[in-house]
Amino acid sequence: MTLIIVDQHKHQKFDETYYHSNSNPGPIFPKLIGEHKTDICIIGGGLTGISSALNLAETGHSVTLIEGMRIGAGASGRNGGQIVQGYSSDIEAIIKTVGREKSHLLWSLAQEAIEEIDRRISLHEISCARQVGYLFAATKNSQFKLLKRISEKLKNTFNYEATSVIERDTLKNWVKTESYIGGLLDYGSGQFHSLKYLYGLAEAAANIGVQFFENSKAIQISGGDTITVTTACGSVKAKTLVVAGNAYLKGLDNTLQRKISRVTSTVGVTTPLSPKQINSVLPGGVPVADCNNILDYLRVTDDKRLLFGAGADYLGRETKNKKRLIRNRIMKLFPQLNDFDLEYVWNGFIAATRNQLPEITCSQQNIYIAQGFSGHGLALTGLAGILITEKINGISERFDIFASINHQDMPSYPYRNPLLITAMLINKLKDLYH
Q: 112, 164, 356, 384 — which has fewest CB within 10 A?
């Protein structure tokens, strides 16, 4: 059996983000040249791939990871930096999808994912500006009522006590805008510098023997009892393959992308702001995301800049005028903010499933796939690495909870684009009128 990987980066120039320019130079690894043998080969040098590599190496496996560009060139270096509890999917939808008993297990796993971040930060002494607190903001009464119901559901269903409803009269202690009417503060969620965290994990993995190869795009995979991954200048033979490209790796004979849609989000970071400017917009010091289907998300970085993300293109297209989009969204939300410029703007890609739960599964006995984190990837990618390691080591129970989830295919071509465009327009209308 031969599976072909479509080269996602062939015509895509790697543009540095705020995260790349704000980090010490990351580890530099060689290009894959010649033939290599290993227990496990991993495709993808982001949080999913490196978390998997680290966990697998810690349990005694030899691991080789190949990345088509640089470590952290994809979503791990171009996200919003927000660590969010749970899943994108609604609580009742999760219960309907997996049943009440498994929904409790899913929730506890999502909490474990955030605990794992803090454990790794402490264990490997990673300096990545980790902070706690997160505000979900309502732009209309229906959303605020929903946030109140969510808070009660979390307490009553999962015994989760870390949320607090913020009424309109106290909301401006956290965010100063006329666009929001209330919010839900969650101290179980938070923020960090994702790329510094990733570099810390990569260094820890390299120190215990993981072999990393950059600028080594997978061209072909030959499957069987032994898997061969071929690049332009070499190959890796392995007993097991982990595919961890998420929205940045199309292919596997066109089967990998059937369950996910590649969504574009645009992010901008301002020049450093004065204390007065920061107090005029986000005095509470916690990240904020609104409750719209096509949402805005924002936070103040540790070097006192406003990071702002907006927009969603369901076809995965590049935003034409990124700087204008972000500046307009900032000024709409904070008309009082002046005398700032956007120093960095970029696009990032999110892989979303139809039920908004991640797809963590085996495509065949010795090929594992983790993707479709649907906007919650900063925490859930690390969880994927833990679960894949458990499964490979013969412990199946927790992995099988995710593997048993029925993920529906996304629309196939030629119907895919029109249907996704329609969905995008419907979500925009919902944000305006519901």
A: 164
* Gap between the Cα atoms of 236 and 141, Å rounded: 55
- Model pLDDT for residues 249-283, shown as the tens digit of each residue: 765 556 777 888 888 899 999 999 999 999 999 99
Helices (H), 69-193: 91-98, 100-124, 141-158, 168-171
The DSSP code for 264 is E
- Cα separation, 40 vs 226, in Å, equals 10
| Model pLDDT for residues 180-196, shown as the tens digit of each residue | 999 999 999 999 999 99
Rounded CA-CA distance 201/293 in Å is 33
Provide the 3-class DSSP secondary structure of residue 394: coil
Instruction: Return d(Cα 137, Cα 180) in angstroms, integer.
Output: 6
- Binning pLDDT at 50, 70 and 90, where does residue 102 land? very high
Which two structure tokens, joined as six digits, stand for 286?
A: 């916690």
Task: Output the six-digit token pair for 240.
Answer: 């097991």
Domains, the chain: 2-79+195-258+357-410 (3.50.50.60)
Q: Is pTM, for the whole model, over 0.70?
A: yes
End-to-end CA distance of the chain: 50
How far apart are alpha carbons 189 and 186 in whole angstroms?
6
